[in-house]
Amino acid sequence: MKKLNVGVIGCGSIAKHRHLPEFSQNEHVNIVAVCDINEERAVEMAKKYDATPYTNYEDLLANEEIDAVSVCTPNYLHAPISIAALKAGKHVLCEKPMATTKEEAEEMIAVAKQTGKKLMIAHNQRFVSSHVKAKELIEKGEIGKIYSFRTAFGHPGPEGWSADGKDSWFFKKDQAAMGAMGDLGVHKADLIRFLLGEEVVEVAAFVETLAKEQTDVDDNAVCVLKTENGIIGTLAASWSYNGKEDNSTIIYGENGILRLEDDPDYSLVVQYKNGEVVNYKLSAIQSNDEGGQTNSHVIDNFVESILNDQEPPVTGEEGMKSLLVILAAFEAAQTKKVVPLTEGVKQ
Asked: Could you check whether 4-124+297-313 and 125-291+322-340 share the same CATH topology?
């Protein structure tokens, strides 16, 4: 089988810790090009993976040998680079949030359809072992009708993780468009949609900048979400959980409770109404901390979808639905009103 020639655009932390190592571990892939406006960074990654370094993504896209690209840039470049890559005949794996507006997301989806190329959004939480198992239990009716949930993603902030530390693009509104909600909240919006198999139809929210003095993007948010079947719950995203990262989700049903990534020893705990408790020790969630899950499964799924000509597990449409929840939260916080999400994705 012919190997896929892959280029990675953006050589910051997510490329360095996830995309590049995982592409290199995939036997069906050759990393042939890397790109970063920081030439030193591009050259460093090029040497490590025996690839050609670029400082201009348009030059990389002009390389006809490249079959697929990962877009690992600041948020504001996700849509324009993805669209340019699709038009250049490349399959695209784009980091989340896929875009900064609904219109950008719609254009990405439309161009992917026009070009017949794969577009996948890197929502890695769908592939976490505890989340996969919890979805299976929910679908089997193990905890009966779902009533409520709470999901959170918080850590001390991207300055400890981003390649540029406190000077990171994460804190610059013109490059990031949104803060903790775009970084962490969109993960959890996607996860809740995935776990429950339902769309969010109403959003209320408080979205604030409370902890980070160097920024004008949000660093704390608490949202209330309602799904199409009336399940209500909360979603919290924060860059001010100044201790251990919280990446937990709890699902409340008629027959019991699912606790995901909430216990230090067990990645999934099921507490039944009759008092029975079942503990699942599954592989750890992916984390920025040492000892996190080593493979996100995002890259492998993307590669597989191209090689087998299948729909990627997280399509552009799926990425857009999760983005719309976050955009609705910003609108809700601004207007102090509950925002309906009835329009969905235009087909």
From this structure: no
pTM for the model stands at 0.95
Report the distance separating Cα 173 and Cα 185, nearest Å.
16
Low-confidence ranges of the chain (pLDDT < 70): 286-294, 343-347
CATH code of the domain occupying 4-124+297-313: 3.40.50.720
Fold for the domain defined by 125-291+322-340: Dihydrodipicolinate Reductase; domain 2 (3.30.360)
What pLDDT is stored for residue 345 in this prediction? 37
- The domain spans of the chain are 4-124+297-313, 125-291+322-340
277-280/339-340 β-pairing: unpaired
Q: Identify the residue whose tokens are 């050609």.
A: 52
